[in-house]
Give the backbone structure.
Amino acid sequence: MPFDLIDSSGDIGVRAWGPDAHAAFSALGEGFYSLLTDASRVSPSKGLSLSLSAPTLETLTVKFLNELIHRAEQERFLGAACDARYSFSAGEHRLSAVILGERFSSKKHARRLMPKAATYHELKAGPAPGGWEIRVTLDL
């Protein structure tokens, strides 16, 4: 998935992109998990399903990442692949995602970073030249 990590003065940012919103949100999920560990060592053996809605695209983006942080902390879930579906109707932005992965194991997975929260600082999400782009900063 197309994403890159952005150093942001003591925090970390993720920039994800794709031909449409589905691909950009999927890449954002995979970019997030690359912060936590080497995602190539995560087996896609367990599924996690999410369904979120928000009044703005920015709020939806923050809710999505904060939910991934919560699941990583509380359930020790690490993702290997993310398939996200975005829609907008009746004034609501909606995202459903299926993330394949497994529980963290210190014998298998090296710990990298664990963000505390997604922020609105320099957040951008929406159409961009060639498709969609999402930029978000995560508080370490």
